[in-house]
Amino acid sequence: MACNTWILGAFVFTVLLCATEGGSHVERQTTEGRVHGRIVRSLGRSVEEFRGIPYAEPPVGKLRFRPPQPKKPWEGTLDATSGSTGCPQVTIRGVNMQGVTNTEDCLYLNVWVPENASNADSSRPVLVWIHGGGFSYGSANQALYSAVVLTALTDVLVVSINYRLGILGFLNAYSPEAPGNVGLLDQVMALKWVKRNIEFFGGDPQRVTIFGQSAGSMSVHAHIMSPMSQGLFKRAVLMSGVMYGIDMWDTVQESVAKGDRVASMAGCLNGRNISSDPEGVIDCLRNKSAEELVVAAAESKSPMESLPDWMGPPHSSDLSFVFGERYAAEPASRDGRMSEIFMRMVATFSENGNGWRGSFDCPQRRRAVRVYHASPDLLTSETVCKAQAKPV
């Protein structure tokens, strides 16, 4: 039996719901081949569950650091009953990764289908979940993200996706060998899979909503702005995170410098650096194990001390780009050009009391406490520290 606690939308409430495993199995066709899933029960309803469907070729060997490649068709029927992968990552205290196996071959997604959804009636809306974790940790296969109950409760299809993290997902050598942001390109590839295949599961490819939390929410915001994602979704939900939020977005120079530090720790510089010899450094990094690279990256500490230095998506005001391409239009603080088909953006903003307040202390925050008599335990410190606090 699996139980889930849900926090839905801007209204925060807790519901403990349980799903029980069933004994039946189900098969669906995709453009790459047939997949074999299982049927579970929740809220008195049947839900089809497919775990571990590959949406891209394994990003290993020469494909490490490179954009994802489409998954080649397979013969026979693929077992999608027990996918449990996560991309290589650091271990964060308090993050439940029980049952998740970290492996570089991690570009898989999960699909939950409500009962009576047939590909002859492809009309149900679709939710695509992008997990958070600072672009450094997390997995679509964390128990927290099982969508059995959500699917039974809402009668929508739910998809959750893995994407490359940390140095393996965001190393930028300013070179075709490692162009940066491949973790976000993974997400685009997964959205293309949904566009191409979700009708086989009874979903409507024209009614796709992407949603995510924290780094997942930042990713959603990036997809809203990126021309590479246009036409892949209709709506978006941002849950506590935007592109201009916490400092996980790097300039190209910052990203290259972080790559040099990791390469140095991994023994791959030897008198050179990424700027002078990107191909040589990347070849050396490709000959290291994924675990070696994750450990080397973790040795670079962030200001939050308990976390490794962010190997974030390159982003800066002087070169505003995402997924390796410039934006269609420069985003502004007051307006932005959104796709005409984009209907609604819902953002939630959550404060957890004392979250990170010590790490993001700054003069603006202290002034807000003094001038406005604001409670230091309720301030969202990152927001305050990014703004100029002025009396009115």
Automatic annotation (TrEMBL):
InterPro entries: AB_hydrolase_fold, AChE-related_enzymes, CarbesteraseB, Carboxylesterase_B_AS, Carboxylesterase_B_CS. GO terms for biological process: acetylcholine catabolic process; choline metabolic process. It comes from the Eukaryota. GO terms for molecular function: acetylcholinesterase activity. Keywords: Glycoprotein, Hydrolase, Serine esterase, Signal. GO terms for cellular component: extracellular space; plasma membrane. Residues 61-82 are annotated as: Disordered. Pfam families: COesterase. Residues 28-299 form the Carboxylesterase type B domain. PROSITE patterns: CARBOXYLESTERASE_B_1, CARBOXYLESTERASE_B_2. Its EC number is 3.1.1.-. Residues 1-22 form the signal peptide. Belongs to the type-B carboxylesterase/lipase family. This is Carboxylic ester hydrolase. It comes from Rhipicephalus sanguineus (Brown dog tick). The lineage of its organism: Eukaryota, Metazoa, Ecdysozoa, Arthropoda, Chelicerata.
